[in-house]
């Protein structure tokens, strides 16, 4: 079995639930099963900064959705 086949055979039903909550204006917090996993902060005039739960910067993005996606991708790897 190749790695690609194994990856495709995974089911997402066992994946923990990720939720985004707007804690305040310009701040979105991500939680997986209630545990903090990262956040997105508006950088007024320059985009949206995503960081992991350990405050590792993931970059600044043009939209909040792009920043959220960047964080979500780190959680699936």
Low-confidence stretches: 1-12
Q: Give the total of beta strands.
A: 5
- N-to-C SSE series? HEEEEEH
Radius of gyration: 14 Å
How many domain modules?
1
Portion of residues in beta strands equals 35-45%
Descriptors:
alpha+beta; 77 residues; single chain; 43% strand; 5-stranded antiparallel β-sheet; globular; disordered N terminus
List the helices and strands and how they pair.
Elements: H1 3-9, E1 18-24, E2 27-32, E3 35-43, E4 47-52, E5 57-61, H2 64-76
Antiparallel strand pairs: 1-2, 2-3, 3-4, 4-5
How would you describe this protein?
- This protein has 77 residues and is an alpha+beta fold.
- It has one domain.
- The chain has helices at residues 3-9, 64-76, and strands spanning 18-24, 27-32, 35-43, 47-52, 57-61.
- The chain has a 5-stranded antiparallel β-sheet with strand order 1-2-3-4-5, covered by helices on one side.
- The longest helix has 13 residues, at 64-76.
- The chain starts with a helix and ends with a helix.
Task: Provide a quick synopsis of the model.
By secondary structure, the chain is α+β, with helices and mostly antiparallel strands. It has helices at 3-9, 64-76, and strands at 18-24, 27-32, 35-43, 47-52, 57-61. The chain is globular.
